[in-house]
Amino acid sequence: MINKDYILRLAEQFGRTLAILLRLRERNQHEEALIYIDDLFLKYLGLTSRLINSLSEEKLLQTLSPMGVVNIHACLWAAVLLKGEGDIYEAQENSTESYYRYRKALSLLLAALLHDPTIAETDLYINVDELLSKLEEYELPLLLKQQLFAYYEQLGNYAKAEDTLFDALEDDERNLTLIQLGEAFYQRLLLKSNADLAAGNLSREEVHEGIAQLKKRQ
């Protein structure tokens, strides 16, 4: 678990960075803002914006976490800066460029949160709901849906996790990995009390219905 004081200091750095970006955007200094972000990518990650944006979400996470353990610092910096770029392109009405940056930012943020849930207790000036609202008109890739499924379960929002699971299965209804993840999810839910399930907006009957639906897909 990452040190909370460290996360607080990191959040302060994010806040100062985003304040500078906001001032540049308000002055329509979009190119200057993109150059500033590229400098920060090099400073904190040793990578250029061009390289980061050329990688898939999965490859980017591997690049930022070469030891196989999620690098919280790198993931959060990359997520914040990618969102910053996305906001700039959105202001320029370049939805294609903003979309890919918001998507990568969400994937990296979820990777960090799934690795250490305590991060959510700090105001990082970036959150899952805001990024999802930026992406609401787009169909998310399967890997990102899997991350969201795990994230919602972690939050205790079991109904949302279930919805995300079956949404992912609509993309690939015979996906054995997804079916196995779903089965394990429902087995964990069966161990919950009725009160815990209700708090997650799911009933025990709905859990059994979900299990039955998964069996039909096998």
TrEMBL record:
It comes from the Bacteria. Pfam families: DUF6483. This is Uncharacterized protein. The lineage of its organism: Bacteria, Bacillati, Chloroflexota, Ktedonobacteria, Ktedonobacterales.
